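Suppose you are handed only these lines of text.
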Amino acid sequence: MNVRSNAINPLHTVIEVRHIHTRFGAAVVHEDVSLTVNKGEVFAIAGGNGSGKSVLMREMILLQRPTAGDIEVFGKDVRTMSEAEVAALRRRCGVLFQYGALFSSLTVTENVAVPLREHTNLSRRLIEEIALLKIASTGFPMASVTKYPSELSGGMRRRAALARAMALDPELLYLDEPTSGLDPISAAGFDELIQQLREWFRLTIVIITHDLDSLWRIADRVAVLGNGKVLGIGSMSELSGSKNSLIHEYFYGPRGRAAKEQAWNQR
Ligand SMILES: Nc1ncnc2c1ncn2[C@@H]1O[C@H](COP(=O)(O)OP(=O)(O)OP(=O)(O)O)[C@@H](O)[C@H]1O
Ligand SMILES: [Mg+2]
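From them, the structure of the protein bound to adenosine-5'-triphosphate can be written out as follows.
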């Protein structure tokens, strides 16, 4: 087989972001961002507030267009996809948005059923059964499936949102700040759940987080965004040895040091 050395192999590469530039008016968010997400990995995007993490995710899931640059998902250029191809791609992806927005007027089961109702022709009964199965797989307390989002704790809401993201059996799961606002024990439990789901469903996961504890626990590789660029990409061990002053500050500021020590003590 004659394969160009720089060609994407969709068997191994799930997302390829090449030379992305993003501007909102005069404000530059991304100035030449490139990265590759491999099949089966937990790929984290880290960086300070406003560094363009959520915008990058929105570009990967086709909710927003970069000003310039290419994005390929499952080997297809997102700019040239037909509407049918976009719909097919969306079906293969699950998304947990930052702040996890559940529909407030729907119960947990109804929330998880929404993507199934939208994207399948399954019967009502089957949809409810699948929704309950997904909810159970996230460890959400089953006695509370008829509750509304306002009646749930932050941790329960996050699990319900994750169940909804998993509803269509995605191959690729995007998680934007899934543990922000959770106490350290709930956050650790959620990270464990993400690991478990990855193994059970052979997922590829793109996770956005500032949480250094989470990064040490679950990320295979991390891209650190800053100044509109990728400051570094690598494992946490690799990045923690980086000479880049911004990455160094990120890891060895007061929070970084504490997180690293804790992670090492847990080994
Ligand atoms: N639709 C938009 N129009 C104008 N500016 C936007 C828009 N969306 C995002 N921005 C700006 O782009 C920058 C990056 O935003 P983004 O939400 O990606 O940051 P982030 O890295 O996810 O930050 P946080 O850690 O706070 O979630 C911010 O300055 C934000 O104000
Ligand atoms: Mg964000």
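What can we learn from it? Residues 53-54, 98, 176 surround magnesium ion (ligand 2) (CB under 6 Å). The CA atoms of residues 23 and 29 lie 6 Å apart.
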